[in-house]
Amino acid sequence: MASVFQDAFNSLPVPPRVLTLLCGVYAAYQTRRLLDFVWFYCLRPSSVHRYLHDPPAYALVTGASDGIGKSVARELYDNGFNLILHGRNEEKLRRVADEIRARGSRDVRYFIADASDESHDFAKLVQPFSELNITIVFHNVGGSGIARDGIDSFTDTGLAGIVHQNATFPLLLTRALLPQLRTSAKRGPVIAQFVGSVTADITPPRLVAYSASKAFLRALSRALDNDEQLWGTPSGVRFACITVGEVQSNSHKATASLVCPTADRFAKAVVARIGCERRQYTPWMPHAMLNWVTGLLPEYVLDKTVATAMRQTASKTKNA
What we know:
Blueprint: H1 2-11, H2 14-43, E1 57-61, H3 67-78, E2 82-87, H4 90-101, E3 108-112, H5 122-126, E4 133-139, H6 156-185, E5 190-195, H7 199-202, H8 208-230, E6 237-242, H9 263-272, E7 280-281, H10 285-296, H11 299-319
Helix pairs in contact: 3-9, 6-8
């Protein structure tokens, strides 16, 4: 049978033969992508428990007072991790810590810092936790509302605050934690994850500083991972950036749906895929499918579509 196909192929003129070969290569590539997609989202077992190594493992979650951060912290706690929570409102964060403590007997600590404030002493912020075995860092803090006007309508302080909250704060916190993470990595796997956004790809109008900051996190995570693995002896500390689409939370009061999961459902997908060995990925499968579709659109079509959606969202917010 194989010889029949070989003879048929050889009988073709050269151009159709080349085209057939290219089509075969493309089909094989797309088949591999499909199988990889099914494995990643439907079959792959969770590896988060690899990060539960002695001494007792801690996960540090920023922006844990509400939304994705709170849900991820709760999911990590239910998977056996002690917690270090970060937020800017102590009363609110204390309630979250007490709520999570009620779910078990593990340790829950926290620290307070406004991520938009540029005056923090990061070494001092993390010093109370310097003896702990931190194996997961989840950089969730961030956010920005839709601006009414262009960036020239912002004050320098306001614009810099958005960038600091979404980009500089996780960068400087990582710098302060890195020696400690390297120590933890001598005992077992360690990972720091940055929460990116689909806005880094679709770059909506009126979210200029936010989108740029999220794109920075994507480059930062890859550069840090290369720095720790490819320059000198690998430290064992890994970095990744996840792409997040629309998620329902108290700060984003959308209707929950397949493409807009609740924070709790999204957190389960996030935690299940921690340690998947990918440096950039989308944890929620419907978000990944949407990203694939938008990637097929011509840039000008995508930009106009996103701008229209942003105007509609801004109008609803204004009239709410």
